[in-house]
Amino acid sequence: MMRTGHHRDYCHESGVANLLEYLMVSGVLMILFVVMLLLVNANIMVGPANTLSYYAFTDIGNGVSTRIVDVYSIAPQNGTITTNLDLPEDVGEQGYFVEIGPSENLNDQNIEVWRDTVSSNISLAGIDLTQQGAAIGNTTSGGINTISYDSNGF
Question: Residue 133 in contact with residue 153, Cβ under 8 Å?
């Protein structure tokens, strides 16, 4: 004879077990998702952006170097020459700095274009540091920048 409402084969804990299983699997997946978000930003987005910034900085440094060498090659023996240089506003939607000065071995001129941890060093070929009026100075990204030469020095 069968009683209505009572089944011995029915287990009341199965609903709780399914809920706990769902919560545990969802928790592990959420932790993995957060870890992946942190890794994606660091490895997939920042790394390639820094690589592209380095190559852009190298191009900018080569352009500044070329303009400075051009000014020195047509510089008068007595007098002044000035030219304007238009640098890109930003690289990767961020500004940067340009510094011109002696290199580490103190025999050459160096152009360093940098921002945060990304830096590019370009040799300023053709201008000896021992010449009067060796290239020196700095600027930031964007706008019109001036390159000047004066035979008497600055």
Answer: yes
Inside any domain, residue 102: yes
Q: In whole angstroms, how far apart are CA 56 and each of 51, 85, 106?
A: 9, 16, 26
What's the rounded Cα separation, in Å, for the pair 7 and 9?
5
What range defines the domain where residue 54 resides?
39-150
| Cβ neighbours of 15 (radius 10 Å) | 9
State pTM to two decimals.
0.71
* Number of domains observed in the structure of the chain: 1
| Residue 19 forms part of a structural domain | no
**What is the tens place of the pLDDT at every residue in 50-106?**
999 999 999 999 999 888 888 888 888 888 999 998 899 989 889 999 998 877 776
